[in-house]
Amino acid sequence: MKPEPLSLPPSPNWYCARCSDAAPGGIFGFAARTSVFLVRVGPSAGANPGAPPFRVVGELVGHTERVSGFTFSHHPGQYNLCATSSDDGTVKIWDVETKAVVTEHSLHQHTISALHWSPTVKDLIVSGDEKGVVFCYWLNRNDSQHFFPEPRTIFCLTCSPHHEDLVAIGYKDGIVVIIDISKKGEVIHRLRGHDDEIHSIAWCPLSGEDCLPLNQEENSEEPDIPNGKLVTETPITKGCYLATGSKDQTIRIWSCSRGRGIMVLKLPFLKRRGGGVDPAVKERLWLTLHWPNNQPTQLVSSCFGGELLLWDLTQSWRRKYTLFSASAEGQNHSRIIFNLCSLKTEDDKQLLLSTSMDRDVKCWDMATLECCWTLPSLGGFVYSLAFSPVDVGCLAIGVGDGMIRVWNTLSIKNNYEVKSFWQGVKSKVTALCWHPNKEGCLAFGTDDGKVGLYDTCSNKPPQISSTYHKKTVYRLAWGPPVPPMSLGGEGDRPSLTLYSCGGEGIVLQHNPWKLSGEAFNINKLVRDTNSIKYKLPVHTEISWKGDGKVMALGNEDGSIEIFQVPNLKLLCTIQQHHKLVNAIVWHHEHGSRPELSCLIASGSNNAVIYVHNLRTVLESNPESPVTITEPFRTLSGHTAKVTSLAWSPHHDGRLVSACYDGTAQVWDALLEEPLFNFRGHRGRLLCVAWSPVDPECIYSGADDFCVYRWLTSMQDHSRPPQGKKCVELEKKRLSQPKPKLKKKKKPTLRLPGKQDSSIVTEDESSRETSGPVENGVSDQDGEEETQEPELPPSPVVSGEAVSCIAVSLGVEKSKVTVNSKATLLKKEPPKEKPEALLKKRKTRSMLPLSTSLDHRSKEELHRDCLVLATATHAKELNEDLSADLEERFHLGLFTDRATLYRMMETEGKGHLESGHPELFHQLMLWKGDLKGVLQAAAERGELTDSLVAVAPVAGYSVWLWAVEAFAKQLCFQDQYVKAASYLLSIHKVYEAVELLKSNHFYREAIAVAKARLRPEDPVLKDLYLSWGSILEKDGHYAIAAKCYLGATSAYDAAKVLARKGDAASLRTAAELASIAGESELAASLALRCAQELLLVKNWVGAQEALGLHESLQGQRLVFCLLELLCRHLEEKQPPEVRSPSSVYHQWATGSEGNLVQRVTGVWRNTFSVDTPEQCRAALKKLQDVKYPSATSNTPFRQLLLHVCHDLTLAILSQQTASWEEAVPALLQAVLRSYTSGNFTLMQEIYSAFLPSGCDYLRDKLGDLSLATAAFKSLEAFFIYGQLYEVWWSLCGPGPESSIWVKSTVPAEQRAPEDSASAEDTEPEAAAAQPRSSLPSGPGLRLSGESERLLSACKELFSERHASLQASQRTVAEVQETLAEMIHQHQKSQLCKATANGPSRDDPGQEAEQAPSRPQSPREESNAPLSLPELTRRLTEANKKIAELPDSVKAWPFPDVLECCLVLLHIGSQCPGAVNPEMQQQAEELLQKYGHTRAYRRYCQTLHT
Questions:
Q1: Could you say which DSSP state residue 829 is in?
Q2: Nearest-angstrom CA–CA distance, 762 and 756
Q3: What are the φ/ψ torsions at residue 709 (nearest 5 degrees)?
Q4: Please, what's the b/e burial string for 401-433 (b: 16 or more CB within 10 A of its CB; e: otherwise)?
Q5: Which pLDDT band holds residue 80 (cuts at 50, 70, 90)?
Q6: Which segments of 1184-1267 does DSSP mark as H helices, in order?
Q7: What is the DSSP letter of 1429?
Q8: Residues 65 and 92 sit within 8 Å (Cβ to Cβ)
Q9: How confident is the model at residue 910, as a pLDDT?
Q10: Residue 1420, class by beta-carbon neighbours within 10 Å (0-12 exposed, 13-18 middle, 19+ buried)?
Q11: pLDDT band for position 989 (50/70/90)?
Q12: Which range is least confidently modeled, 378-382, 1171-1175, 1395-1399, 1499-1503?
């Protein structure tokens, strides 16, 4: 199968005047969300034979918000350039070949709504924004100019193809203007006629006004001179036609020479065949136009329901048009069209491309008006992927745009054969599941809890279950029926029923034969069968085993329950995950190992995937449920929640996972190994599916609105990203559009269900429902956005980019400024009055109602007196009198107490209704009901300090209750410290401390606990530790250390102080640990501090840090040697390159004696290390420290430290006369220098520690010493280094070369020499020099010292070491050849699978065809070798290595063949200098062991 890097892209953005364009030659681009997707059209697309000639080839990524405009450059030589505008305020210029930004500008201060690349000026890009500002940007000279022709919202603009200075602009209110940018944006014509938004402007492809035979003038009521002034001479005197399309359902043709309309075309209402269109769509209209090249009498336009019309402009009065694809039903768009653009392919076909609200991109042949091909796209998150088990290759895709796609992935004629199903869905499709046996039967679940069945083989609407979930449907599964549905006869019940798991945590069983019936909650059966009394867990996932005998349920608490049919008996519970389970999958049963069918993989909100083997449980069928706590395999590597899993149907134990970290990972679950990692998505992955026909093909969907089809073998990574890579992937994901919530509708509830799971969150919902995120404008707000009132221009202008706009907007800006100043003037005077007003304001009356009743009319007051007199003199109150007193409650002030209480209650209710509860409380206090006042205030949350202060009057218990109630009220008001103070007033110290702690007032909590609790109280320690851990996470290490010290945990205090890692923090931590008695920690921290100071060459500070602990005496010796060695090396450098920042000790500046003598002298005088016992003690401590071997990547300062450690061991061993320990230590220092490639350092070690050669050590060791092998290796490296110095002296004599070379040429005849000595040569350069063939030095001869050295080279010609090294090289080469053979085999298999691969224009073609390139000579030589031959060579080499004595293999040895080559080269430079016997021995060794390619090449280069 042909690999398709990008399968289904996001939908083109909606409601944009120019969001797609095409360049000559076959590149089409459309804006989708924040990107632009590029499609290769025509023969160069490399499509399969017979398939439509197009292919998605790339994406332009860079904008952070919706792309609102896209346009290509149509100038020869720069067809690869295009421009985009975005809601992020930028206009970017791109190179589509490199997919990189060439340049960009952010001149606009408002949302950009229109963009066009001038067809006449090759570097001019014109853009307009919603406030009416037009910017012209010249790319080549990086210059710009702005205009403000009209204070209206720009909807579209188009540059004239005939005159470079003319731009036509369409506005939201229907006005069209033509401006001349060469005259500072002067309005040439203002065309009036449309009543609504201008959606599209198209210039006639031919200049002049002779192309249309118009004899009649329509719209004659319009004036000839719309601007109200006589135009004497304009740039368009010759004239040109202009077509405009508007939301008012008309197309108008304008004459630019006369500045008036000459034709009006009214859109027809076409009857749709088959219907099936959402009625709301008919109310929408987007009228876009395209005027075909070389066809001035024809005009293409969109219509109401997605049709395309070809107008005949020669017979406009008849309104003659031709419908695109009139003969083929179903080829037209089903919803309104937003953009049209033409494209001429390489084979000269004239095509038209359209984008629509139905989320399809269609290509039309202008010759036949028929649809050539359709590119489907996605308008929402991809929630679910499911392959049909019956119709192999049919992939169902559940998308957040409310549609289901069924993609025939095996179609040969069309790579994008996709059918869409939307009827009856009306919500996000979150779950899909095919029937295992019935063709075309697809179950779907939605975001609003709906479960339905689609027959994808027909056009019938779906069947919808009458039982809805309360929240989102997250998983569907087909399984055998369980009671009560399984209780009927065979013919009365289906063989398989549909199970759905919803966000509310229940699993429903639906009868597919009768979806109108009630669905059953399986929780009742589970409870009854297993006699469960406790509350059942919240279910989040369901999965049936392939044989239908076992069901797995995943739960919110992370547990997985395994049930057995028919009655759902609980077999076992898996307690592995600790977070919500998102995915459970059973291994397939058709593999070569049947026992693997009992494997179950699960993923949850944590990043680890667990695989459990349930074979034992399923076979034993335990009586009581078993709990499993240990996994069979653990797959670790992801860094976020795992959302989907799928087993490979082609392999045993191979699993793919989708994760929120933005990647899909393929695992070998049996070996716990990550194999391949796919990172192509720009969002969080939500679903994944393995192709049922291609073992390497996997499909994945994410919240980036994309479905990718990718091959495992084509991936560059093997495991999920970690560290910096993960951060980069997160940035890539965050470059997606940010959610924009609607202004009028604020979401109040989160979407239901798995709140933390992989499917939907509130953030995702807002992304999909908001227009700019999903498709420019969503279905719901499309009309609302166009009807929003215009906002005035902003009164503030900031930045140089818009400083010029202030001139154009000056009138409106001044109005805004005057209004704001006037407002300020009105508000300023009252500032002086509040104090006076406050002094004169009367206090509010406590009895306002009574007071108001006493200010009524005289008659009413007289009536009050009579009623009062009657009440006071009456012996008994009759009904009439009681009614009068109730009506005149204010008389209670003058009657009995009961009436007074009624008056107070009435007044109190009035205070509460008027919002003055404090007055109500005072009345209750007057009444004496203090307890009632407190209860009422507590219920209403209106307790105050004054009320609580008087609470003791009502008693101690009432006061306690009031304080507690007030503390709770203060907590609701976020006044936690005050609440704690009140709790302390009633001696509730622990409650107060806990309150402060739980709300992160740790400082206050500790103060309270320290003041009120016993010092040994564990609460205080817990406070310190809790606060310390939080401070540590936030990076406040010093304060955290104080907390740990307060908790008497000095060890933790030192550790947290050391986390910062700087020298000052490490030293403080070391001192702290030392004070606390943590000797081991103090020593390690002091050593770390010294190493940090070493990096800045602060030798004094390093020794002071080491002096903090006695156990570091040995390290002080190492640092002392290191300081002296660095000083020694620095003295050999020229003064201009020495480091001035080094801070040396006074004892390091002396120069008496050699380096070893200076070291031992400083040890004796400064560190008091003199006696053998002291040296032996220091030696013992240092021998416990082991450093790793050096490599070529080891930093130089680290290498020096490790070398000095070995040299210190050597010197201490010498001081104690332990020569058998001194030689290996010295050899270890030499080997570190050699393996790191630092030849200069190696020679310095020999010159400083063995100035007279190795004879001294030989005498000390003796012949029977155990260190003899180490000594031979040390001696060999000594001769090896001197051999190279002789050779380099021959090639280019330096200041010190007189030791090795004598010149026979007078000094005045010598050529100028380089002043750099061999010791100053960089190791890398030094190592490279012997590999090149250098000219011999004329007039040079070897000195006696050199001749003696060459005679000693026979020590290097070790037959055993040559055999060992040759065998080791053979092993390495065989292993490399085997790896290369495996790699080539994999590549060849891939080449077979991709025989019909993409064309040469595909960017990924080179990588795919790399294996077919001509092999290198190395590969050619390996090609004939068979696997048995390689195995034989490997066996022989290993056998030879095993036969060699351990003394040969114990220590490294210089490369024998390398030494032979150098010696032979010296002999060719200086004939007679090398002993013929040695020369013959070297040649024999080369002939015997130099059979590898490298040495054959070097022999040809150096051996002459």
A1: G
A2: 11
A3: -110, 120
A4: bbbbbbbbbbeeeebbbbebbbebbebbbbbbb
A5: very high
A6: 1196-1215, 1219-1235, 1239-1249, 1255-1261
A7: H
A8: no
A9: 80
A10: exposed
A11: very high
A12: 1395-1399
Element (H, E) at 1269: helix 1268-1291
3-class secondary-structure state, position 1296: coil
- Cβ atoms of 864 and 884 within 8 Å: the answer is no
Name 533's Cβ contacts closer than 8 Å, sequence gap at least 6: none
Q: Which residue has the tokens 């109005």?
A: 815
Rounded CA separation 1433/259 (Å): 91
70 or 757, greater pLDDT:
70
Pair 1045, 1017: CB distance under 8 Å: no
Tokens 């022709």 belong to 149
In 858-1014, beta strands by DSSP E = none
Residue 1258 contacts residue 1246 (beta carbons within 8 Å): no
* 108 backbone dihedrals φ, ψ, rounded to 5°: -70, 140
In this structure, what token pair is assigned to residue 1247? 């010159």
Q: Label the pairing between strands 154-159 and 360-365.
A: unpaired
Quote the pLDDT of residue 119. 95
CA separation for the pair 190, 164 (Å, rounded)? 19
Give Cα 960 to chain centroid, integer Å. Answer: 55
Residue carrying the six token digits 């010498």:
1214
Q: What residues are paired with 537 via a beta bridge?
A: none
How are strands ordered across the β-sheet holding 91-95? 67-72, 81-86, 91-95, 100-105
**How much is the average pLDDT of 1144-1166?**
80
Q: Which amino acid is at 414?
A: N
- Residue 374's nearest CA partner among 423, 314, 306, 439 is 306
User: 3-class secondary structure for 166-179?
Assistant: EEEEEECCCCEEEE
> What pairing do the DSSP bridges indicate for beta strands 569-575 and 626-628?
parallel
What whole-number distance in Å separates Cα of residue 74 and Cα of residue 122? 8
Rg (CA), the chain: 45
Give every strand in the sheet of 497-502, ordered side by side. 473-479, 497-502, 507-510, 520-521
In the block, residue with structure tokens 């549909």: 498
Q: Which residue matches tokens 């007003």?
A: 837
Distance CA 534, CA 469 (A): 23
C-alpha 53/C-alpha 396 separation (Å) is: 24
The predicted-structure confidence for 401-425, as pLDDT tens digits, reads as follows 999 999 999 888 888 889 999 888 9
Measured CA distances, 589 to 479, 648, 651, 654, 719 (Å): 16, 11, 11, 13, 27
Measured from the Cβ of residue 186, the count of other Cβ atoms closer than 10 Å reads 14
Look-up: residue for tokens 């994945």? Answer: 700
Closest CA to 940 of 976, 966, 919, 904: 966
In order of 45, 383, 1022, 1240, the CA distances from 760 in angstroms are: 37, 9, 39, 63
Give the three-class secondary structure for 1460.
helix
> With 50 as the cut, is the pLDDT of residue 801 above it?
no
Cβ(374)–Cβ(51) below 8 Å: no
Q: Is the whole-model pTM more than 0.85?
A: no
pLDDT for position 1194 = 62
Separation in Å, CA 160 to CA 178, 207, 631? 10, 10, 70
Q: What angle do CA 330, 336, 341 make, to 5 degrees?
A: 90
Taking the alpha carbons at both ends of the chain, their separation in whole angstroms is 56
The closest alpha carbon to 588, from 578, 599, 577, belongs to: 599
Cβ neighbors of 992 (< 8 A, separation 6 or more) are: 979, 980, 981, 983, 984, 1008
Q: Which residues contact 712 (CB under 8 A, 6 or more apart)?
A: 666, 675, 676, 696, 698
